[in-house]
Design goal:
about 130 residues; mainly alpha; elongated
Length: about 130
């Protein structure tokens, strides 16, 4: 038995994540250059933007605060977070789909993959 609705749900989730990520990143780049037109005019100014010392928000709270303040770097980081979260959300959706169709083997396997992903993010956030 095929489940076209499940395939459609996954496709919509992945497309939405990629489109939202692209919009956020493009908006962030635009906002950055609107707020700092000097980046277009001089090499050293653009060098400050692309240097390793440039501050980008590095925590979820800082990203949210920066998006609220309409800061380009925060919008770019939000887009990258959405891009990273999209495949994780796909795995979570797959768990739900496997529960709905009562495929317990794949529910267990996919839930294990999701748990490993979430644990790896938790370890990364904790600095491990």
């Amino acid at each position: 038995m095929t489940h076209d609705w499940a395939h459609t749900a996954i496709v919509v989730l992945l497309r939405t994540g990629v489109i939202l990520s692209t919009i956020l990143i493009a908006t962030g780049i635009t906002v950055t250059f609107v707020h700092h037109p000097e980046y277009f005019q001089t090499g050293p100014a653009l060098g400050r933007l692309t240097s390793p010392d440039t501050h980008f928000p590095s925590s979820f709270g800082a990203v949210v605060d920066g998006v609220r303040r309409w800061r380009g770097q925060a919008l770019i980081m939000a887009g990258l977070l959405v891009l990273i979260a999209t495949p994780v959300a796909r795995v979570a959706l797959s768990v739900i789909i496997f529960v709905i169709v009562r495929d317990w083997t794949y529910t267990g396997l996919t839930a294990t993959v999701l748990l490993i992903l979430l644990l790896s993010f938790a370890v990364g956030v904790a600095g491990g």
